[in-house]
Amino acid sequence: KSANPQWREQFDFHYFSDRKDMLDIEVWRKDNKKHQELLGTCHVDITALPTKQTNCLELPLEKHPGSLLMLIAVAPCTGVSISDLCVCPLGDPNERQQIAQRYCIKNSFRDIKDIGFLQVKVLKAVDLMAADFSGKSDPFCVLELGNDMLQTHTVYKNLNPEWNKVFTFPIKDIHDVLEVTVFDEDGDKPPDFLGKVAIPLLSV
Questions:
Q1: What separation in angstroms does the CA of 3 have from each of 27, 60, 64, 147, 178?
Q2: Are residues 96 and 59 both part of a single domain?
Q3: Which of 54, 56, 57, 178 is the most buried (most CB within 10 A)?
Q4: DSSP per-residue letters across 83-124
């Protein structure tokens, strides 16, 4: 019930060089669970923003009244990575030794915010639900930890996909929960939900 809402939410998006350079933003109005209406869209060209500083932007909504006030900071991506199974970041014994030294008791108070990191190997899925009329699915896997999100590529026409990817997340809160969700890619339509599992970090 507000024409001037304040959200004060922060989101981290991991921007890699092979992604598109536009940040697309949509504002929606919800009456109830069934009815929602698009109030406007705006776009931010990430490549045009100065790096390593916070940019205050007032973005007019396209073809609709109103604007969005946002703070956007573009900084080098640290602690987050996607790699193939054969070049796993923890596969090198020298790197494992450096990490063990970095998180030993003697160095535990050197950087209070550096709690650690989580490495997840997403190997495969088995016996997924068929979402297409052909009796197959086009599955991809999304990993979320806090407000960090990474995803695999899509394996087309397969109910037993193999991704063999390694994902690394920095841990900001030891009480976070890793959520792993499998979706079926459906072209321009929203993806179909195929299943989900939640793993508390404290259980690892």
A1: 12, 14, 13, 27, 35
A2: no
A3: 178
A4: EEGGG-TT-SHHHHHHHHHHTSGGGTTS-TT--EEEEEEEEE
Q: What is the residue whose two structure tokens read 């990430």?
A: 46
Domain-terminating residue out of 48, 76, 104 = 76
Q: Model confidence over 14-34: pLDDT tens digits?
A: 766 555 678 889 998 887 767
67 and 85, same domain (yes or no): no
> What residues make up the domain containing 51?
1-76
CATH number of the domain encompassing residue 113 = 2.60.40.150
Give the model confidence (pLDDT) of 108-151 as tens digits.
Answer: 777 777 788 889 999 999 999 998 888 899 999 999 998 788 89
Check whether residue 183 and residue 109 sit in a common domain: yes
**Single pTM value for the model:** 0.65
